Amino acid sequence: MSPGERGIRLDRVSKHYGAAVAVDDVTLDIEPGEFVTLLGPSGCGKSTLLRMISGFADPSAGDIRIDGRSIVGLPPFRRDTAMVFQDYALFPHRTVAQNLAFGLRMRRLARPEIARRVERMLAMIELPGMGGRRIDQISGGQAQRVALGRSLIVEPAVLLLDEPLGALDLKLRRQMQSELKRIQREMRLTFLYVTHDQEEALTMSDRIAVMRGGRVEQYGTPAEIYNAPRTAFVADFVGEANLLPVEIASVEERLVRAHGRVLRAAEAGFETVRSGDGASVAIRSEMVRLAPPQEPDWASLSAVVDEILFLGAAVKLVVVVEGGGRMTATLPAGTPLPARGEAVTIGWRTADARIVT
Questions:
Q1: 4 pLDDT exceeds 50?
Q2: Which pTM value belongs to this model?
Q3: Do 156 and 89 sit in the same domain of this protein?
């Protein structure tokens, strides 16, 4: 088994600061060589969880294992992990090569071996020939690559990344997303990545743990998180979803009541509710259509157009539905559009909707 082919096991991990609970009873299995993202809003506990794995904080309860071995109580340098921070934490007046070599010198490797690894890492992070430049002489994107290379060069079992792309502009961030994924595949490393950026998580991850209030709301593949959210929070936080408040009219017949109308909903999610319960129907904005067909597998509502927003490749309609509440429909550019204030009918396939609570 190569150094990167080791997984992580979090078993009922919690972290308390006095009466405040930062992480609450989290259990996760991260497979060897997997790219897993902790996704959630600020204060949800994702960075605290990363700090406990890295050894910069101790859990109040629970166990953390890498390759089946508990690492709780071990100092950071004995955990076989490396960490990439948002601010890079590079030595600004040292050269790129000196920054890359820092961890190897601390491990007292021989100079020829250090030089060999530095040259190999410069090629991997696509900065060949730039080892002699100082950090204050390179761009932000290049500095991000150096920070990544400095962590990778020590060949850790697990690489921990705490919002490392947050300081980059949008175009460079997307470029670096592809680079990170390429390097992770080539080195077969286990990556645990922290971000609040849903697009970043969906783009790079094998699996995503969506966190809220110190707990994991849902853990699954990007497709599962996006297409089959289990809670209203996950549906609303990942992607853009319409959350239509409903009353469950009949679990057996898969019917809900919204704004005085009885609508047929998809089967997904009915296993978590009973007739008479309050819930929401989650419908992705891109699944909403104008003038939907009047067919049994479609649901529809009357609405009035409130806003029309141009997004480049798409147009977003914001409508006020009959009975109150707003919904959005994201339509391809070039779609014939109603005027602002015009009455319309919006609808969605029942298979594209999901009951969430």
A1: no
A2: 0.88
A3: yes
